Amino acid sequence: MTKPWTARFALGISVVAVPLVLALLGPLLVGEPGARTASFTVGDGHWLGTDFVGRDVWQQVLHGGRPVVLTALAATTLSYLVALPVGLVGALTHRRWLEELLMRPLDVLLAVPSLLLILLAATVLSPGPVGLALLVALVNVPDAARLVRAAATEAAARPAVEALRMQGETWWSMAVGYVGRSMLRTLAADAGTRLTGVLYLVATAAFLGVGVAPDAADWAVMVDRNRTGLSVQPWAVAVPALLIVALTMGTNLLFDAALANNRRSDRGRGRGTKLPDATRTAHNPAGSEARP
Amino acid sequence: MSGLRSFLARRLLLGALQTVAVVLLVFALTEALPGDAAVALAGDQPDPARIAAIRETMHLDRPTHERLADWATGLLHGDLGTSLTSGRPVGQYIADGFGPTLLLATLTVALLVPIGFGLGVLAARHEGRLADRLISSATLAVYAVPEFALGVLLVTVLALQLGWLPPTAVGYGTDLLGHPAALVLPVLVLLSRPVCSLSRLVRAGMIDALASPYVAQARRYGISGTRIRYAHALPNALAPAAQQLARTIDWLLCGVIVVEALYVIPGLGTVLLNAVAERDVPVVQGLAVVFGVLTVVLNLGADLVAHGLAPRAGAAA
Asked: Is A199 in contact with A243 (CB distance < 8 Å)?
């Protein structure tokens, strides 16, 4: 609990607070939509002016955060729902063919750039918000599964697992009860990185028009659609863009500060520091960005 | 040396498998279309003539495996198919968009390597002090920000409010080198994320390497600090960074698509987005194969370089 840590933690919270509160509570605060007026006007009863079809920008801002945040949270959760069982089975099975069958296809999927995969799918499927969440989750599964497997392999090699096995514990209680629990810290660290990456992908895909209606109330869509009026009405673009910047930046700072705290308490107890490092080095070259 | 050879063989095999998988995945795209592919692709203009034309162009009346074989042989000969909307060969689309994208990518990588390594080494040298804290915090913050949000804010401030730079590259066509001012913002935005991740990685690697026993031993021999840093510590810090450089290619690709859309640059990203919007499947497929194979090859190269720099790290193939 030294000073630089608390400072960075506080910074992260204060940066992420505004967009997060707007995203979660915004739809509750917003009033009745007013009549549409001329597009790209400033002032005239509209606090932030009007957008490309003459809607009030402030109302759109209040509505526009929720889809970004909810899609990102759903996609992160979904990717773990698939990655956890796949990675655990891959690490704990004694059948070599099963491990290869589960993990090798993921190696191959890792080779395709994530945004390209999303655009490919968008060409033929025209996904909605749910489809976008599924797609983003899908491109995150290979990397998450590899991480789960690396962490589980490390935990499963400990003497404690051998002891459990000799006591005649069931596979299930070993996999979930011991190995699963010892991975929690690594997973928590990875979840932060992954959420940041997912937020990036969700916002970028929405900006490129994947998974959203062309006039949707979504910060990324607002940035895209209101660009045409950037020189007359910059607020319709700058406000949602700033909110996205604050949301992604704050999330990353916050998780990093929380992890720094984790690492420090690890060091205090003198154990467990090896796990995150070991999983990072066991990581695939094309794996997720390392967090030094 | 058998270890190296088996590593090489395994890594090359994985690369080949990945290439095949990319081709299969991209081909599977047409199979994923719901119902009759030709009807689905005709979309807004479902007149029988257009449907027939699409079926003709994509040979949809023939069995899947024959089409796959045809397409794959075409790829080997550099024939990527024909556009559904214009009837022009896909190769021509790629040739048109190639110049601007290559220019953007070359400029970005040329600036990325010195800036990323420079910042990383600088932060590692001053570990824990003000310079390190500033660099670490700034790179951590910027690294998470999507390019489009950063780019649009830079346009608002630098181009529209201050008037220093042109807001987009509209009107310059493919002659971007003749208008260097129009390139400043796109390259800046493209650099933002890769520079952050690369410098953080170099910093971490350098700190590890500088704390290692062999560096301590070198210090005891009285070898100068500069020589230790650049001749002994940096190569070991480079191995993870070289792999990150390949990951960066993935980001550059995502970034290029966004940046070209944002600054209206007629490169491959714009070609891809237009094709996606028009559901011009052959063009999307052709570009996807080119991008996918490029990523596989660059990852392969980075792994080999990383292995050559620090064999102990043993890149898992």
From this structure: no
